[in-house]
Write a structure and sequence with these properties.
375 residues; 3-stranded mixed sheet; alpha/beta; single chain; CBS-domain; 4-stranded mixed sheet
Length: 375
Amino acid sequence: MSSSFKLFRVLGIPIYVNYTWFIVFSLVVWTLAVNYFPYLGPYYHPFIRWIMAIVASLILFSSILLHELSHSYIAQRQGIRIKSITLFIFGGIAQMAGETRSPRGEMKIAAAGPALSLFISGIFWSIAYMYKWSMATSPVFAVSQFLAYTNMMLAIFNLIPGFPLDGGRILRAIIWERTGNLGKATLITSRIGKGFAIVLIIIGLWDILQGVFISGLWLIFVGMFLQQAADEGYRQTLLHRTLSSVKIRDIMLTSVIVVDDSITLDRIVNDFFFRYRFNSFPVVSGNTIVGIISIYDIKVVEKDKWSYTAVKDIMQTNIPEFTISPERGALDALDKMLDTRRGRLIVLEDGKVIGIISQRDIMQVLKLKADLGST
């Protein structure tokens, strides 16, 4: 998802488009203009068919975006922050910071997407019905029928009871509510999801053997993606459960090496980076945190300027971005590190540096809990 660009914001959520999206968009437009619309209405002018194909494809992917926004809206109502929504080759994906705390909340979030897709499908079926008497010549009928059918199929596909599909999340919520064990519920539904993915891959291989190459290859790719997503979803659930009760105060390192903002770059390189081999250091002025400096900040400065360039001249000063409270959870720290692409965060209490937390520290705690069988 790194090769994406931002389009706009909806409900405060940044919407991104991955460059792989253009592949499937082009394929859908071409298929509609060359195969589907000529079959449905042989009287359409070729130029009209291409316009219909572009319009139908744009509305289809807007429907996919609305599907994801419906999940995100319900999640936000439950206090879950949505980092972003990205449209990519397999549709759309919403990145949530955290998980719902109850089975009923999970069920509401999961059901919102298919419900909206069915609602959109109903709207376009109604439009198609109004134009059914002129279906051989009406572009509105052809486009509406396509959108009604695809949104209905989108809802049905997502209701398959395998994690991470919406149906799998609904089933997970049901098992979670009955057993009280989110880990067990996720394991069961992720196995169902992987089983469904394997079925798609087998069907895709059979299609290729029958000469239906593009359809078969697409099913294989979708199956591989769902299989990977099921595994990743299960691991993420275990990660959340394991780290949810761990406080930063309990696992942070308290022996923090800080640098004064007045020292020069050649000195910090020789006395700190080479000696301690960390990628970054907190910067203080007296006893007050004023910034952070990393090896990447120094690399952009010409080497012959190191002897007279002070740390305070190039340090990063957006303190909230690289600091965190000791009372926050380890999962909060990990999310923040991933959001800001930092390996370490400075732990502040009453404005003073009391520790430092790194991704390595969190992963070591996670491994230790896994080795001990603790969750």
